[in-house]
Amino acid sequence: MKKIFTLLVGVLMAGSAFGQKTWTSVITAGDFESDLPAYEAWGTAEGNYSEDYDFASLTVETWNSFWVHEWPGDQTKQQRGTATVVADPADPTNHCAKVVIRARAEGEAAGNLTKDYTGNDGTYGSWDCQFFIYATEPIPAGKEIRLQLKVKADREGSFETQNHSYPGKYIDANSFGNPKYTTEWTTLKLTEFTVSEDEANSGFQCIAFNLCTDEDANVIYFDDIKLQIRDPQENTGADGAWINFMRKGIYSMDNITGVHTDGSAWACTNFTFQDLNQPEGQQQQPAPVAEVPGEPGVMAVRIPVPGWVIKEVEDLDADGNQQYDEDGNVKMKSVYYWNDGREIGTSAPARWQCQFFVSTLHKMVKGEKYRFKFRAKAEKPTSLGTQAHTGPGKYVSYNTFGSESDFPIGTDWTTFELGDFESNDASKRTIPSGANGCQTITFDCVSLEGDDNVFYLIVDEFSFTEKYVQPSDITLGTPEDIQLPINEGEAEQPTVLDMANMLNTFELADFDFLKNPKTGDGIKLFMIQEPDDPEDDPIETFSGLLPWGDGGFVNGSGSYIDDDMGVQLYFDEESIDGTKVTLNVWNNPDSGIDFAGGKTVQTKLAIANQGWYYVYNVTLGTAETLAGISPVKAEKAGNGYIYNLSGQRVDASYKGLVIKNGQKMIQK
Length: 668
Known about the structure:
Elements: H1 14-17, E1 24-25, E2 66-70, E3 79-82, E4 84-88, E5 91-101, H2 104-110, E6 130-134, E7 144-153, E8 157-158, E9 160-164, E10 170-173, E11 180-181, E12 186-189, E13 193-194, H3 197-201, E14 206-210, E15 218-230, E16 242-244, E17 256-261, E18 264-268, E19 271-275, E20 283-286, E21 289-291, E22 299-305, E23 308-314, E24 332-338, E25 343-345, E26 354-359, E27 370-378, E28 382-389, E29 395-397, E30 406-409, E31 414-419, E32 440-444, E33 453-465, E34 480-485, E35 493-498, H4 500-506, E36 522-529, E37 539-545, E38 552-554, E39 560-561, E40 567-570, E41 576-577, E42 580-587, E43 601-609, E44 612-621, H5 623-629, E45 642-644, E46 649-650, E47 656-660, E48 663-667
Parallel strand pairs: 34-44
Antiparallel strand pairs: 1-15, 2-3, 2-6, 4-5, 5-15, 6-14, 7-12, 7-13, 7-15, 8-11, 9-10, 9-14, 16-33, 17-18, 19-20, 19-26, 21-22, 22-33, 23-24, 24-25, 26-32, 27-31, 27-33, 28-29, 28-30, 28-32, 35-42, 36-37, 36-43, 38-39, 38-40, 40-42, 41-42, 43-44, 45-46, 45-47, 47-48
């Protein structure tokens, strides 16, 4: 039987598919291995697609979870219907969906390129070939939705994603970002989001992949598709505190090494400046910070923007010969030049030829609350355009802030408050669909003909709420590896930790911030929450604030637990001495955690300060086990200092196995 699949009637009724706390699939046969009956493709008998087609007359049996609008080069009609399922070329035992993408040249030769959104013929849009994932029924507002699938192709490329009510009926763009694929099977876990009221009212039921993102032919294969929904998790119901990613203002130089752009890491700082106008080519570097002229002590990002002029020059032919019009006059043409004399071309420079980037570790989610506040001025009145990028230079959408994408800038400071500020209505307070999955706001700076110009910019706030921010988004510095020996009897096991590097990272002088647990600051334990889907990665969250004198417990898996049946880590005010903190570890003998035979428990500690974390990767085990994991780091043999088996310096009050003058001994 040809493996083309359809929905099973009644497989997921409203009462079972929706109203669930766990992830529930809303498609069938995503692995393309089931022998389900095929149904006739929808549309007219010839396969034509018409916006006026009577979709209401279609029965459930007519639909299939996977559809394609495909141009097989040898046909002159648009084809829309069930996706073709084939054996994987690299593994005949595995089946997958196959989509053929024709090149622009093929469409032009056939004379049947698709109509654009204005109805004009002859365009080659990214939607010239589409692959659709169609759910069992419309998805209600407020549901969390996620998409995971495997993709490979004959050559590397990328696709766009859209929300549709049914295949071909567009709702909005960039629903799951712009993923990249390669010639090898790659599992894509695309950005999760919450379905909005507008999407639900439009009958949101379909995800469209626009596959013609360049002009070359390709063949793409899809497999193991999971489209799942659930009710919002209880622990994410509240938005939580605001976390400002511009925590150091204009001086913010926190390295961003986790900003992923199509699978590769982009290392940059919060502020990056790109000037395509430099003679040596594209320049990317941390944006320059300088004192604002006439404002002593006021520092801002300084963005020099070159001006340009138009000149009338002789219009020479390809061989450099003069050309003349019918009246015998020398032909002239308008050419654009930068003020330093370099030629731009026969059209004005694009605004994006000089850009300023503001990046965060956080990947924006459509519909989440945000705040973006900045001040700007320029030597000459002008304006700034904006775009949404995944990483600096990786364009996704121009419509970064919904309806606001252009900002007039004068010679005096103007403050702009975007997002969840009182001055904005509700429609402007959340991330628009065009910025879903992005991590960079881009300012396009070229706008003036004539003299050079200079912008001055101060970014006061780029904030998101805890609801969508992941712990890794707000972790500063490189996590430190530490070893904490557990007690081998009934007593606690103290270990002195030097936290000078942590204090320096936070730019703190002391530990006063630990004394007010109401703020959420302090030492926290790391919790690993097992995912609903065993194929997913564990969900990592920081939890279990260690209050003074009480501490917190972890179980044998390293996860935070509320009771005392585990290993306790705690400290009190007397444990702090300068930059050092004595952390006491107690292994409850009734906990059932067996550290015999070299067993260890991995967990994490996080120092929390104003929503940001400094992380310690912790290994718990007996002193003997930890001694065998890594060598003791003594400053030098015979220096008289005492070290525990984690290589940390301790004093004479420390009890247990220690190193002194290069020798192991028991200190009682």
